[in-house]
Write a structure and sequence with these properties.
By secondary structure, this protein is of the alpha+beta class. Helix content is 53%, strand content 17%. The strands form three sheets. The protein has a five-stranded antiparallel sheet with strand order 2-1-5-4-3. It has a five-stranded mixed sheet with strand order 7-9-10-12-11, covered by helices on one side. A two-stranded antiparallel ribbon has the order 6-8.
């Protein structure tokens, strides 16, 4: 490829240099011839035929590179080294003469003719060297063009062979991946060309698909695990309800069964809500939201729960904070964070809800002084059904922070879980509106 480009560049540059050089040389010949004519006329006593004849005869006897011709008004040659010409004024040239032809006074000449009162004067200069250079450049151009074509053909064959080999490698690897080997990846060379970019993009897509499939397997396992307990309890209670010999209130049993069914429906409802949020369809409904009022309202809703638990809920919210988003989702986000802090903090603890302007962003945080989350588990708590308590004896389904993560993502925000020493600080950074 590079060789082909080099050959084409050489041919183009040669052509430009050739055209420029020949133009310059012809211009130089025209200037020299004009100066010689002016000197002849200046050396002659007059511009009459009799006065010019002697001057031209003397110049013709001394070789100077010029060719001279002096004709009378009837066209007869009076002096000079050229045969008679048609008395025409201006520049004249015989480029059709070949540089390889035998030398003669009338081959490869460029000059100028002038009409005088009773005579015609022509002065010329040989263009044989110019013709030789033109033939050399034309030959070089032809060889260069032929070499460029050959290099282009060879380069095309080599490139097409390499391209077909890489495409076949990608195709073979793709078929292997289709055959359930999802850990296989397309090869990426060091060339950094378009095929490498394509292979890199496909590999990134495959990584994402593999991660989603792992998440799906994990969610399926977690759903089965979380639903097994309530379904087992539900079945036991329904069995008790149909045993007449048991002294158990059928009404109470059915009420307990309804509670278990509500718990199961809550799990599926949360999963559907997360799926709807992650689909991104909610972005169309985004508008300006007064975040300060929303946070204050959410904190006020959970104040009775904090009082009942013997906890203190403190607010530090700047006024007039505005962000772009969906009010319902943002309220769900901060409600989950506050509820999570209240649920995992002991009696007598303090929960801080804060919001302030941070450049073009709005920095919000919910901080508790409970037991916190170990650093190596902070990314896992955002996964569906993950719970710090492996026994799962406490209330909850492990979807609260997953829902928070989905809402943060759809708002192009960031969520950071950090150590509050003691406790957990959940910080959400949203882009503010002026």
């Amino acid at each position: 490829m590079y060789a082909t480009l080099t050959g084409i560049t050489f041919v183009i540059l040669s052509s430009v240099i050739f055209i420029s050089t020949t133009r310059f040389m012809r211009h130089q010949i025209d200037d020299s011839v004009m100066n010689e004519i002016e000197e002849i006329l200046a050396d002659s006593p007059s511009e009459r035929l009799d006065a010019l004849r002697g001057v031209v005869q003397v110049l013709s006897k001394h070789p100077s590179g010029f060719y001279y011709l002096l004709q009378d008004s009837r066209g007869a040659v009076e002096a000079g080294s050229l045969p008679a010409l048609d008395p025409r004024e201006g520049v004249r040239e015989w480029p059709e003469a070949s540089s390889k032809a035998p030398a003669s006074p009338f081959s490869a000449i460029r000059g100028r003719g002038v009409k005088l009162p009773d005579a015609y004067l022509f002065v010329g200069w040989s263009t044989r060297q110019l013709l030789e250079m033109e033939e050399m450049v034309v030959g070089t151009f032809a060889w260069g063009l032929a070499a460029s074509i050959v290099l282009a053909l060879l380069g095309g064959l080599i490139m097409s062979g390499r391209l077909m080999h890489r495409i076949e490698t990608i195709s073979t690897t793709s078929r292997t991946i289709i055959g359930e080997d999802l850990d296989k990846r397309l090869p990426v060379t060091r060339a950094g060309d378009e095929l490498d970019h394509l292979a890199g993009s496909i590999n990134a897509m495959l990584d994402r698909i593999a991660a989603l499939m792992n998440d799906l397997r994990q969610v399926t396992t977690d759903i089965a695990h979380d639903l097994r307990t309530p379904l087992t309890r539900l079945r036991q209670r329904l069995e008790l309800a149909i045993r007449p010999e048991e002294a158990v209130s059928s009404r109470q049993t059915l009420e307990n069964a309804v509670v278990e069914i509500d718990s199961i429906l809550a799990i599926f409802g949360a999963l559907l809500r997360i799926a709807q949020i992650e689909s991104g369809n909610r972005r169309a409904g985004f508008k300006a939201v007064q975040l300060s009022d929303l946070l204050a309202t959410t904190a006020e809703l959970y104040r009775p729960m904090a009082d009942e638990n013997g906890q203190t809920l403190i607010e530090a919210i700047e006024s007039s904070l505005t962000v772009s988003g969906e009010r319902e989702l943002l309220m769900q986000l901060f409600a989950n964070l506050i509820e999570n802090a209240l649920r995992h903090s002991p009696r007598g603890s303090t929960i801080h809800v804060a919001a302030r302007k941070d450049g073009r962003f709005v920095r919000t945080s919910v901080t508790d002084n409970g037991r916190g989350i170990p650093e190596h588990l902070r990314s896992k708590v955002l996964q569906r059904f993950f719970r710090l308590e492996a026994s799962r004896t406490t209330v909850g389904n492990g979807l609260g922070l997953s829902l928070v993560a989905a809402i943060v993502k759809v708002h192009d925000a960031t969520l950071d879980l950090s150590d509050a020493e003691p406790g957990l600080r959940a910080t959400v950074l949203l882009e503010g509106l002026a």
